[in-house]
Amino acid sequence: MIDLTITEALKKLNSREISATELTRAHLDRIEKYGAELNCYITTTPERALSDAAAADARYAAGNPLPLDGIPIGMKDLFATRNIRTTAASHMLENFIPQYESTVSQKFIDAGTVLLGKTNLDEFAMGTFSKTSYFGAPINPWQLERKLTAGGSSGGTTSAVASGLAMGGTGTDTGGSIRFPASITGLVGMKPTYGLCSRWGCVAFASSLDTPGPVARTVDDAALLLSAMAGHDPKDSTSADAGFHAHTPLSPILGDGKKLRIGVIKEFSNVEISPDMKRIFDARIADLKSLGADIIEVSIPNILDALAAYYIIAPAEASSNLARYDGMRYGLRVDGADLIDTYKKTRAAGFGTEVQRRIIIGTAVLSSESYEVYFMQAARVRRLIADAFDRAFEQCDLIVCPAGAGTALPLDSDLSPLEYYALDLFTVAMNLAGIPACSVPAGLAENGLPLGMQTVGRKFDDMRVMQLAKHIEQFAGVDNRPTKIMGK
């Protein structure tokens, strides 16, 4: 049962070939066996999972199942879950138990999913390898003995889904935090249009960039999860009055005489990528051409400035959002000699090095001396990038590009903070523009590790983005069954 996709499992559940309880127990047993080694969960919820599964089985027996009834998932530990610890992978919130449910997690409850637990991540979603987690980094199940990164910040979710410790899961994508980890774990990671999925009840990092989205093994599975997640939320002022309703299997967008103009970004042609990534990218472009797609070079003139703009805007918003963690209302508190000393000691003890670094950078760029020089300049670059994407989509229907420069790196790679930041080069521009992008397995490198490509579209063109991703998925044919990846 571990190797079933969500789509396959739903068919078997509806036909009563398997039960939700059996499916859930299979995943709980696998968590028991491999959870500690992979470190992909911060908190597991076996009793809740079996209760959810029993309720799903009752609905199947009554003939009124919900859309995702009985599907076991992992919830990134940024989403508040009522009466279940929500830590943001930080010492600051290590013992925080919310008395409310985030909109996204509530939507999954309403869809009938089974909650296996809260998945690991970079602290407050700030990182690329999930190494900044207070609870230690999750491990990539591909070539497990090598101890490779599962990516970040949604590395716990990608580790869990790739290893069969969940059938699907949630992530958040602020600068590539769903797409990059998905690309190096052989999964589909969807960053929806900004506002399509509610941020209410999700611990904030950078509010104008944070985008909840799904992680799954196939594009069809990701589309099912996104259908459950999406929708307007009056509690979120940035929520769009739009929805996403996928009918799976997704219909082809190419072939049988259907024409499509697919753009490749001129400025990325000079960015160094691995020989494997170049070979696979070129092969998938040739595949799309064989279906009748016209490949067009498009220009996003400021896209190579996106990284610099992002690492000004995101820390600035983080410094504001994280000001609430002062030891007064919830979370960690370290008493000092007076109020200011309590603030200092609480924040020094509660936040890790990377979070402190970003708060300091953000506070600096928002200072009166630097606001115009740095923050406003970054905001102007953001506008230029968004406008350039709009112009590019006048020439093409969708865009494809790499999701990363190469395969997963060892967790103990000795990279500087700037080198870690540079890993987001291919993903941050889509967050700045607020447009949808999907990372999909595009092939395997010569060392046997997966590589991902992105499909990118206009705002609210999420369906077409996923339809194009499905073509790439079919051409690549990457076998990402958990028992195949782990050999067990």
Explain what this protein looks like in three dimensions:
This protein is 40% helix and 12% strand. The protein contains 16 helices and eleven strands. Strands 1-3-2-4-6-5-10-11-9-7-8 form an eleven-stranded mixed β-sheet, sandwiched between helices. The mean pLDDT is 97. It has a single domain, classed as Amidase signature (AS) domain (Amidase signature (AS) enzymes). The chain has 488 residues and is an alpha/beta fold.
In short:
This protein is an alpha/beta fold and 488 residues long. The protein is 40% helix and 12% strand.
Give the tags.
12% strand, Amidase signature (AS) enzymes, eleven-stranded mixed β-sheet, alpha/beta, 488 residues, 16 helices
Write the layout of secondary structure elements.
Blueprint: H1 6-14, H2 20-38, E1 41-44, H3 46-62, E2 72-76, H4 103-111, E3 114-119, H5 155-163, E4 168-172, H6 179-184, E5 188-191, E6 212-216, H7 219-229, E7 260-265, H8 275-290, E8 293-298, H9 306-321, H10 339-350, H11 353-365, H12 371-395, E9 398-402, H13 417-422, H14 428-433, E10 437-444, E11 450-456, H15 462-476, H16 482-486
Helix pairs in contact: 2-3, 9-11, 9-12
